[in-house]
Amino acid sequence: MPDNLIRDIPLIQRYAKNNEVDDFHFRAYLKGYLNMSNEKLDGIVKETTDRVWKQIDCTTCANCCKTLEILVDNDDIQRLAARLQISKREFTEKYIKLDDYQDKVINQIPCPFLQEDNRCSVYEDRPKSCQDYPYLFASEFRSRTLSAISNSSCCPIVFNVWQILKRRLWKRRRDRR
Ligand code: SF4
Ligand code: SF4
Description:
By secondary structure, the chain is mainly α. The chain contains ten helices and two strands, in the order ααααααββαααα.
């Protein structure tokens, strides 16, 4: 049965802002009180993410590519330069800057490789940080809940997964009401 998902970004941002306190209480519950192994929790997050992602078409959204600063490493630069058939130096001059932490990032927001149809023009060679986004499949979700809260106001997949996890796992919340 399809989930009742929210996809509208302004609505998601309002909801995420209004529920910030609840989100941090749920985060504390996951980290300190939920009696469940990391493996089992990761399995639930993966299964929920798979289900939500099947119901959300990234090409109708592309909000991550439109609004986030994209981290790149030297392997990414080498791959992307080869794809564009330019030198690494040319690629770096044209597309890379250092952020406040001196990490390399794509120098434009929205990303210059995003096409008008919301597809990525370098998809097969996109940076590793794009391949991993929205970071819900990595192990030890319990240690990455801050990133989930932060990404939930940008990404409808993270937002909806987080809401489903809250409803499914946060028994104390129901007890309080
Ligand atoms: S990963 Fe999230 S923010 Fe990016 S396009 Fe897909 S739904 Fe939108
Ligand atoms: S490289 Fe592709 S996937 Fe990554 S932000 Fe740019 S358009 Fe999006």
